[in-house]
Amino acid sequence: MPFPLSRTGIGLLLTLGSAAFFGVYPAAARYAYADGANATFVMLLTTTVRMLAFCLFCAITRKALFATKTHTLHGAIGGFFQTVSIVGIFGALVFIPGPVMIIIVFSHTLMLLLYMAWRGEVRLDAVTLGSTLLAMLGLTLVLDLWGQSANYSWLGMGLAFMSALATAVRFYVYGREMQTRNPAIVGAENFVFSVVLLIPIGLLFPSVMPHSMAGLSWAMVGAITQALATFCMFYGLAALGAFRFSLFLKLEPIFTAVFAVLIIHEVLAMHQYLGIVIVLASLLAYQYSQARRKPVPTTAIEP
């Protein structure tokens, strides 16, 4: 029997799933790196698994890929920005600490807010801007940014900013394209091009696999959870739109911290728990303000 659930509610659940699955990846990748894997192997493995997952899903459900020249062109553009985002993240990690990279990359939400407000697609009010900035502040505490050295590589920060800009562009492009197209098809087409564009990197910087089956297993766990997260990401983007999805994806580092505790037994400091509370409060405040602004139509979801 169908039950009513708003489009926004579906999108928020998908975004929550995306953030949770993305949150598993860092802990799994740490085990792979500790077992001898290098960044090239992890990058190519995760991107290829994501591409295969989308293509397999489209094949099983009989969804045609690259049906028109326009779709192919959009896939190439999206795949390019996906690749730039991936390369920027992995490249930045060579030069700057992970928490610094994450904070810079997550500035894509502010970029989207300002751009979409300029275009009149979202309202730039005190609650929206305040929630965005407060979530960023909370993430600096969750990621223990204030405990990092202040001497950062300009090249590393530049690569992270490049990734943030590419992420903002692809979120916006995906959000608009999926207003009329199936998210799985868009995802498959983009990742086909992304894998092709990453081949030269694999040739320039050869992959090094983990030394043991345990390390390879953790690498596969990371790749599979990335694929699941990306499925949720595309469908969440289609339901929520670029800005709201980007804002609620701030939950990802919270899940990363939680899984770091559960999987690799890290211990969180009190200010990290405070950061989690701040991020959650900012997102709840934003969602409450949006819920009061206008009623949301419901969609029937089959069990």
Give a description of the structure:
The chain has helices at 7-34, 39-60, 69-95, 98-105, 108-118, 126-142, 154-177, 183-204, 213-240, 242-248, 252-264, 270-293, and strands at residues 3-6, 298-301. The chain has one domain (3-301). With 303 residues, the protein is mainly alpha-helical. Mean pLDDT is 88; it is low at 295-303. The protein has a two-stranded antiparallel ribbon with strand order 1-2. α5 crosses α7 (154-177), α5 runs antiparallel to α10 (242-248) and α8 crosses α9 (213-240).
Describe the global form: globular
The spatial strand order of the largest sheet comes to 1-2
Structural class, by secondary structure, is mainly alpha
Please report the distance between the alpha carbons of the first and last residues: 7 Å
Which consecutive residue ranges, at least 5 long each, have pLDDT under 50?
295-303
Q: Evaluate the radius of gyration.
A: 19 Å
Query: What is the ordering of alpha helices and beta strands?
Result: EHHHHHHHHHHHHE
Main sheet: strands, sense, barrel: 2 strands, antiparallel
Strand content: under 5%
* Extended strand count: 2
When the domains are counted, the total is: 1
